């Protein structure tokens, strides 16, 4: 899974954004207002993360323990390269001593207000980690792809995890310092609630399969009644469109959370993974796979971008009329 956001935040905060060896600042401010600050530091492993490195007893830690805060030290790129090249001098014991002594020095200079802000950021980071885990962001496109055919389907593990998230998020104790991030998470929760409520209306519960939840094709009726069949088919197609539209909105809400995390907690959050994408299979006559990036833009980037289900449906109907 890699280093968690909470671990990132603890390590950088307790290190004062400085290299534990040379004490150089590892965040360089931009020279132009259109540029982002530059990150020049590395989160180095005390006991090596990969077996090919020789520093420390690799087998003494589990994969999760190797990415734990206790096994990380913040360094400039020069000293990161040096400790990798010189493991005989920069032993595990020495690196732990350097880290401890550096963090004590940083703590001695920190005010109570700074200490409180650090604790608040760690709480926010732990909430984001839990949201990311339950939403399964790394497999988002795969989850989305199950909704793309004529039978909207969800993996049951994802469905159950999201149901649990709705209860979990209600019980959070918010520090009320970073309201922009709090609102982004609550906006995601509101979209998710409507998405699951709509999806729930026509779940096919009588299937033996347990790995997936599928939408029941309720337009299939036993009696020959063309008028009723066509009416139900129109309702089914409208239901499919709404399910997919709401998952598009959920993707926008998830990308908005990631944006707010980068703005307020950690500028490198999910930079390598990039934005969440919509994936659709068998599109058009050539049955191609397409990908789309969906985000809130311009005036949509409000405190709570999602307008609620009633207004959402009205906007979608209005936009479809404009395109017709």
Q: Care to describe what's here?
A:
The protein is mainly alpha-helical and 324 residues long. It has helices at residues 5-14, 63-66, 77-85, 92-108, 112-135, 140-145, 156-170, 179-200, 226-264, 309-323, and strands at residues 27-28, 38-39, 41-45, 72-76, 153-155, 212-214, 277-283, 288-293. It has a two-stranded antiparallel sheet with strand order 1-2. Strands 3-4 form a two-stranded antiparallel ribbon. The radius of gyration is 24 Å and the shape is elongated.
- The percent range for strand residues is 5-15%
Into how many domains do the coordinates divide?
A: 2
Order of helices and strands: HEEEHEHHHHEHHEHEEH
Q: Share of helix among residues?
A: 40-55%
Largest sheet: 2 strands, antiparallel
Tell me, what's the shape?
Answer: elongated
What is the helix tally? Answer: 10
Mean pLDDT: 89
Rg (CA only):
24 Å
Record the strand order, biggest sheet: 1-2
Q: Please provide the count of β strands.
A: 8
Which structural class do the helices and strands define? Answer: mainly alpha
State the end-to-end CA separation: 45 Å
Write the layout of secondary structure elements.
Blueprint: H1 5-14, E1 27-28, E2 38-39, E3 41-45, H2 63-66, E4 72-76, H3 77-85, H4 92-108, H5 112-135, H6 140-145, E5 153-155, H7 156-170, H8 179-200, E6 212-214, H9 226-264, E7 277-283, E8 288-293, H10 309-323
Antiparallel strand pairs: 1-2, 3-4, 5-6, 7-8
Helix pairs in contact: 1-5, 7-8, 8-9
């Amino acid at each position: 899974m890699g280093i968690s956001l909470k671990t990132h935040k603890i390590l950088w905060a307790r290190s004062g954004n400085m290299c534990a060896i040379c004490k150089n600042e590892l965040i360089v401010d931009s020279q132009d207002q259109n540029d982002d600050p530059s990150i020049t530091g590395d989160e180095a492993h005390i006991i090596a993360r990969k077996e090919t490195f020789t520093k420390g007893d690799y087998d003494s830690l589990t994969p999760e323990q190797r990415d734990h805060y206790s096994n990380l030290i913040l360094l400039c790129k020069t000293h990161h390269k040096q400790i990798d090249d010189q493991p005989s001098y920069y032993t595990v014991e020495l690196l732990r001593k350097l880290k401890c002594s550096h963090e004590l020095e940083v703590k001695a200079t920190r005010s109570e207000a700074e200490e409180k802000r650090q604790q608040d950021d760690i709480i926010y980071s732990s909430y984001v980690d839990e949201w990311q885990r339950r939403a399964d962001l790394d497999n988002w496109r795969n989850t989305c792809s199950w909704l793309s055919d004529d039978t909207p389907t969800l993996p049951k593990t994802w469905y159950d995890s999201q149901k649990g998230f709705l209860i979990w998020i209600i019980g959070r104790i918010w520090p009320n310092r970073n309201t922009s991030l709090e609102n982004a998470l609550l906006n995601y929760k509101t979209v998710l609630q409507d998405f699951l409520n709509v999806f729930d209306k026509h779940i096919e519960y009588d299937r033996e399969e347990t790995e997936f939840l599928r939408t029941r094709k309720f337009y299939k009726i036993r009696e020959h009644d063309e008028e009723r069949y066509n009416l139900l088919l129109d309702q089914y197609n409208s239901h499919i469109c709404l399910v997919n539209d709401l998952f598009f909105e959920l993707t926008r809400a998830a990308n908005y959370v990631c944006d707010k995390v980068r703005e307020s907690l950690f500028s490198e959050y999910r930079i390598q993974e990039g934005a969440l994408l919509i994936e659709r299979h068998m599109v058009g006559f050539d049955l191609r796979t397409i990908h789309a990036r969906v985000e809130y833009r311009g005036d949509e980037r409000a405190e709570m971008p999602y307008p609620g289900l009633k207004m959402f449906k009205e906007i979608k109907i209005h936009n479809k009329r404009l395109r017709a």
